[in-house]
C-alpha cells in the first residue's frame, strides 16, 4: 500500500532534494547530510557535497599565498604585460609626435634643471638660458621645467619613456624574462612595488649624480632593480648566484662601455631593487606584512627626502 502523492513529484515519505523538492533522491551531502539530486551534487574527496557546503568551504579556505606573503598571482605574467604595454604606448606617442624631435620627450624625461628649447624642435636648445624669464626673451624660445623647478613627475614618467628602438627593445625583453618569475615568488602587489620603487631609486640617483643639463629617460633603473631582486631571492633560497653575478658583471661593463648610458640610473635601480626585495623576503613571518609595508614606505620616504635635498642644492 502506498501513501498519497501530489499532482507531481515523488510519493510522500520519499526523500527529495532540498533545492528541488520535486526530485526523488537517496544521495546525501557528506557534510550536512541534506538530500541532493544529481544537479546539486558537487564532487568531494569522499562522496558529494551540496552547493551550500561548497560555498561555505570556499569562504573559510585560505587563499593560496606567495612565498613571502600576499596572494599568489593566478597568472604571474599579467602585471609584466601591463608594464610592457605602458612603455609601448608612451614610445608610440613619442614616435607619433616627432620621435627624436618630439617635445613630449622633454616633458617626460628627467631634467635636473629646466631647459629653453627652440619652439617646436626638441633637438635645439639654449644652454645659457637657464630660467624661464631668460627664455621668454627669445622669440622662438620654449621653456621646459626640470625636477628642481617642480616637475617632480619626471622622476616617474622618465622610467616609462624611450626614444631608441634598441633601448626599449632590450629593456622590455629583460622585463619579459624576469618579471613573471619575480611576480610568481613575490606576489602581484610586492612585485609592482619592487618595479616602481626601483625605478624611483634610479631616478633619484640620476637627479643627484647626473649633470645639471642632462636629460635621462628609460626603464633601465627598474630593470636593474629586477636584476638586484633576482640576486637577493636566489641567495635567500640558497641557490647558485654565480651565473647572476656574471650576468650583472656583463651589464656593468656594457653600462660603462657604450656612450650615453646612465650608470646612475642603473646603479640606483639595482640598489633600490635589492633593498626592497631584502625587506620583503627577510621580514619575519609573524609580522611579515606590517614590516614589509613599513620598510618599503621608509625607502620611499628616504628617496623623497633625497629628492628635496637635491632640489635645495640646485635652487
Strand order of the largest sheet: 4-3-5
Please tell me the overall pLDDT: 88
Order of helices and strands: EEHHHEEHEHHHHHHH
Unreliable stretches (pLDDT < 50, length at least 5) are 1-7
> Level of helix content?
40-55%
Q: Termini separation (Å)?
A: 102 Å
Instruction: Give a quick account of the main beta sheet: strands, pairing sense, barrel closure.
Output: 3 strands, antiparallel
- Would you report the number of β strands? 5
Shape: elongated
What class, by secondary structure content?
mainly alpha
Radius of gyration: 29 Å
Percentage beta strand: 5-15%
**Count of helices?**
11
Plain-language structure description:
The chain has 315 residues and is mainly alpha-helical. The chain has 11 helices and 5 strands. The chain has helices at residues 51-60, 78-96, 105-108, 132-136, 154-157, 165-186, 188-209, 220-236, 242-257, 263-282, 288-314; strands at 42-43, 48-49, 115-118, 121-125, 141-144. The strands form 2 sheets. It has a 3-stranded antiparallel β-sheet with strand order 4-3-5. Helix 7 (188-209) packs antiparallel against helix 10 (263-282). The longest helix has 27 residues, at 288-314. 33% of the residues are buried.
Amino acid at each position: 500500500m502506498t501513501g498519497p502523492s501530489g499532482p507531481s513529484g515523488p510519493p510522500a515519505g520519499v526523500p527529495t532534494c532540498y533545492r528541488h523538492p520535486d526530485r526523488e533522491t537517496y544521495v546525501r551531502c557528506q557534510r550536512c547530510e541534506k538530500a541532493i539530486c544529481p544537479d546539486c551534487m558537487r564532487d568531494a574527496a569522499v562522496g558529494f557535497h551540496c552547493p551550500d557546503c561548497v560555498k561555505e568551504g570556499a569562504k573559510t579556505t585560505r587563499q593560496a599565498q606567495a612565498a613571502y606573503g600576499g596572494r599568489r598571482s593566478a597568472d604571474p605574467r599579467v602585471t609584466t604585460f601591463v608594464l610592457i604595454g605602458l612603455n609601448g604606448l608612451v614610445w608610440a606617442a613619442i614616435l607619433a609626435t616627432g620621435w627624436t624631435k618630439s617635445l613630449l620627450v622633454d616633458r617626460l624625461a628627467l631634467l635636473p634643471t629646466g631647459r629653453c628649447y627652440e619652439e617646436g624642435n626638441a633637438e635645439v636648445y639654449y644652454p645659457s638660458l637657464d630660467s624661464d624669464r631668460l627664455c621668454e626673451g627669445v622669440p622662438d624660445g620654449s621653456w621646459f621645467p626640470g625636477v628642481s623647478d617642480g616637475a617632480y613627475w619626471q622622476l616617474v614618467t622618465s622610467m616609462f619613456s624611450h626614444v631608441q628602438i634598441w633601448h626599449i627593445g632590450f629593456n622590455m625583453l629583460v622585463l619579459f624574462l624576469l618579471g613573471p618569475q619575480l611576480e610568481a615568488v613575490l606576489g602581484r602587489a610586492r612585485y609592482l612595488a619592487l618595479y616602481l620603487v626601483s625605478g624611483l631609486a634610479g631616478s633619484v640617483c640620476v637627479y643627484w649624480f647626473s649633470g645639471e643639463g642632462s636629460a635621462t629617460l628609460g626603464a633601465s633603473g627598474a630593470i636593474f632593480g629586477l636584476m638586484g631582486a633576482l640576486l637577493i631571492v636566489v641567495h635567500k633560497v640558497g641557490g647558485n648566484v654565480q651565473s647572476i653575478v656574471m650576468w650583472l658583471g656583463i651589464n656593468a661593463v656594457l653600462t660603462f662601455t657604450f656612450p650615453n648610458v646612465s650608470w646612475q640610473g642603473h646603479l640606483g635601480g639595482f640598489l633600490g631593487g635589492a633593498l626592497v626585495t631584502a625587506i620583503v623576503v627577510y621580514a619575519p613571518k609573524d609580522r611579515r606584512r606590517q614590516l614589509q609595508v613599513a620598510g618599503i614606505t621608509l625607502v620611499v620616504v628616504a628617496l623623497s627626502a633625497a629628492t628635496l635635498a637635491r632640489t635645495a642644492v640646485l635652487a
